[in-house]
Amino acid sequence: MIYLDNAATTPLLPEVAQEMFEISLSVMGNPSSIHTAGRAAAKLIRQAREDIANLLHVPSDHLIFTSGGSEANTQALLGYALANRDKGKHLVTTAIEHHSVLNTFAYLRDRHQFDITIIHPDSDGNYTADMVLDAVKEDTILVSTMYANNETGQVLPISEIGNALKTHKAVYHVDAVQVMGKLPIQPLDLGIDLLSASAHKFHGPKGVGFLYYNNVRLDPLIHGGEQENKKRAGTENIPGIVGMAKALSLAYHDMTDNYQKVTALKAHLLAQLTGLTYYLNQFGTKTMPHVINIGFPGVNHNLLLMKLDLQGVAISTGSACTAGDIASSHVLEACYGPNSPKLKESVRISFSDLTTATEIDNFIEILTNILSHT
């Protein structure tokens, strides 16, 4: 298979899988137990927490391990809004966020009467810091934006927003799922108060992620025991947590080389599109090289995706979390409007550092053949 859907999930690294396998067989204790087996399990979690915290330059006791990015986003938004509603009930986000953010905001609006402002991009599909900051009111308590969009790769002005909000009572949540392990992130320097990440986006296991939180008050989502500093009850996923820490450490170690490799892969693909009729859905002043959102005029994206799949190529039409949903991309709709034909012509191609130039060459050959018979 030619796998070009890495924005949905990345392959698990063999060395990560091996470490998880060994731990699954050798560590049997519950981390909350006080006996030797329990203490050994707790030590592994503590070390993984410290390893991740050191990479982000944050205190290790300010990390909550979760089941992934959606839970981390929901914990951040719901947990903070409900715990701090006495300070205000206005929340700000953008129209291109992941559904775990947009749907949580809708829940807070519909069930808890929060006032929600959703910022739409400008006519060029761009977001500026001023657009976000202009939406902040006196009673705003939370601003939430992506670091980079999962469908188009657009990078938002995180540092400008975060540092400007330092003089306001509103806290800043950043969904960093698409950039964790690809860009160096230090939340304290960027003015980020809450940050979400998911392991399977940087060659770690599925079903595990984390939420960083600054000195903020959070209501827990899951009640029960006192795990995760009383912020998330339930026995921790030890192999998953250790695998996540291992994958993130490897990603940070090779970050510069990996970024350059993916940048070269994107350039290689675009250089071979000569002769094909296409357009790029690219917005903002900076995009992640890992994602190309591209449209072929008059070609239905679902039909194209199916034909590529039959020939062993995996791409997508947008967020994996909307798989099976016939609705158009809310991201492209925010940029082009609901009636644009581009909503039914565009596909997402996404790379990782494991993608090869040969795979790109073979993909272009298959794509060209399909388009020539469409």
TrEMBL record:
Keywords: Aminotransferase, Iron, Iron-sulfur, Metal-binding, Pyridoxal phosphate, Transferase. Its cofactor is pyridoxal 5'-phosphate. Residues 2-363 form the Aminotransferase class V domain. Its EC number is 2.8.1.7. The keyword Transferase applies. InterPro entries: Aminotrans_V_dom, Aminotrans_V_PyrdxlP_BS, Cysteine_dSase, PyrdxlP-dep_Trfase, PyrdxlP-dep_Trfase_major, PyrdxlP-dep_Trfase_small. Belongs to the class-V pyridoxal-phosphate-dependent aminotransferase family. NifS/IscS subfamily. This is cysteine desulfurase.
